[in-house]
Fold this sequence. Notes:
Largest interface: A-B, 62 and 62 residues
Radius of gyration of chain A: 20 Å
Strand order of the largest sheet of chain A: 8-10-7-11-9-12
Distance between the termini of chain A: 60 Å
CATH class of the largest domain in chain A: Alpha Beta
Oligomer: homodimer
Largest sheet of chain A: 6 strands, mixed
Amino acid sequence: MTAELDLIESIQSALTDRSGGRVHTWTGDDAAVVRARDYAVTSIDTLVENVHFSLATHSAADVGWKALATALSDLAAMGADAGEAYVALVVPSRFDGSLDLVLGMEELAEATGTTIAGGDVVSGQILAVTVAVTGWADRELELIGRSGAWGGDLVGVTGELGGSEAGRLALESGEGGSTGLVRRHLRPEPRLAEGTALARAGATAMIDLSDGLATDARHLAERSGVQLRLELAQVPCAPGVEPVAAATGGDDYELLFTIAAERRAAAEAAATVSWLGEVVAGNGVVLIGEDGRPVEGLSGYEHA
Amino acid sequence: MTAELDLIESIQSALTDRSGGRVHTWTGDDAAVVRARDYAVTSIDTLVENVHFSLATHSAADVGWKALATALSDLAAMGADAGEAYVALVVPSRFDGSLDLVLGMEELAEATGTTIAGGDVVSGQILAVTVAVTGWADRELELIGRSGAWGGDLVGVTGELGGSEAGRLALESGEGGSTGLVRRHLRPEPRLAEGTALARAGATAMIDLSDGLATDARHLAERSGVQLRLELAQVPCAPGVEPVAAATGGDDYELLFTIAAERRAAAEAAATVSWLGEVVAGNGVVLIGEDGRPVEGLSGYEHA
Lengths: 304, 304
């Protein structure tokens, strides 16, 4: 218990309040008090050792960064501004990297203007990191859900895909691999700036790519009640990654979005985007191969 | 993965939005969108199997209730109104009680007007339940931290103490024991109504009793830079519990507070309270025994 309190104290002294005065009662009280903006946007995510990461390939700081990145990516997908993070650690007695983990998280917090405003540390057999993040918006219209895609909209995606999975395979094979891809896996960057800029540009629906393009596109299609018709040849691939791998690899944390065709230039001004296809009537996702036919295994839809 | 999505879907359909329209985008999008009041009050807590509860003595529903109760108790201690809860479950493959767990949580959510607005379900070797709760207030003055106790203030506590620990011992001995004490352990009730009422009555500092009176009183004293001088004979004991056990047992989730002496009647109108002693200059906690001397082991302070 005393060791736990000591750890909590050293964690607290490692944290920086970058809220510009919005966070009133900070770590050390029963709860954090934050001066709110009109809309609070909140998500919670857990990473578990040997499920979402391995301490054989991830440093404690990598784990902390990644846990915050995963949660912030959900805020990016809503077009919200990052605000506060609340961190709950389950720590096995064999693990002595809790402070390093929080320092890794602080690196990303600093890069994104997030304040780690509270937390909990408990003991347990496996390392698990839960991060709840709250972002903010002044108007509901600024926020983009998954359900607003319309027939005729273009479908775009930020960045390059498949890099994280390629990095993971390189790490696990022990062959090292490209520093860039490995970093994509260990230190994914939530697309917060791109998310707010695409929201302002007029995105009608948006989702972050955590499970892979094929899977997450289906989520967006289902929530919007439409079909996404995408061309595999247009999928932006990370260096050395094949299109099929780019369309299925998870943990990229790029943003998939839909937007009216006349807003195409606005989207291109907002972020580096690739255009994958369009929204049509129907359901699910159709990924068209170079032969002009749906790629088996990557397309999921029901015939009307 | 499909089983996980099915579970998430059945959990979602078991949940009720009781926010009265404040929760805009609910479970099923990347994040929950909530129309904010002026101050957001947020806390996060994790319960881990075989550390904070045992499935030998707690049903899945008990675990869910308790996890939410623990988090809401922090809001009670701030005098905030309960708002939304975000739930992250780490679920071992041997555990099939996830839905029951959430249903137990929903019972307490209903009793307290809380909306479970989002969550995450992942697999892992041990059952761990993290709940982040957000409460709300219209003015910062309505919220009570740990640091506002003044010399001359009275020290009060709600309810009865030691019941949860007595219930735990009865459960673990297998002897059954009093239904009331066992329920105190399995289904603790966060003192939300008492917390807001005591805040309105003028409480100067407040903390919830999760680690036990002796320990939590020291936290409040440290944050306020004062000494709490309490009389053991005044500690309100759960039925059959001795004062020393009542002063050290954890998990009661009653509220310890300080308030100016002239607000005594207002506090008594706000909640069922017992008066334990007063705030004096100094540090730490002194628990006075019947012989008029500090009780060893329960008092912790440094000589000036």
